Amino acid sequence: QVQLVESGGGLVQPGGSLRLSCAASGSIFSIYAMGWYRQAPGARRELVAVATSGGSSNYADSVKGRFTISRDNAKNAVYLQMNSLKLEDTAVYYCMLNSDIIYWGKGTLVTVSA
Fold it and tell me: How far apart, in whole angstroms, are the C-alpha atoms of residue 58 and residue 78?
């Protein structure tokens, strides 16, 4: 069984920065991709950024140039550096691992507020 544990969420002012971390543990045989999704109140869960094991990364248009995803393959970890945060970035951020089966973390809340 695979477990994903996120950390790093919190309250930040507009223009500020946060770094999210996610560590995977358990029976992981192969990882195709790890990434981050988010869900704002009343909205659907949406892709934020994903990093494949082949080295490519994809970002939602709304976060391009502000967020950076990175991975530590040795630790089965993925990170999301979020800069220039906006009010609309407020959401629960979920870590995702794609290993034939999609696994999800429980989420970490990011609140951007003045």
Answer: 14
Give the tens place of pLDDT for each residue, 16-25: 999 999 999 9
Average pLDDT value for residue range 52-77: 95
pLDDT exceeds cutoff 90 at 29? no
Q: Is 66 left (phi over 0), alpha (psi -120 to 50) or beta?
A: alpha
Q: Which two tokens stand for residue 39?
A: 């869900």
Residues 107 and 110: their CA atoms lie apart, in Å, by 10
Angle at 96 between CA 93 and CA 101, to 5 degrees: 150
Q: For the chain, how many residues are written?
A: 114
Say how far residue 77 (Cα) sits from the centre of its chain. Answer: 11
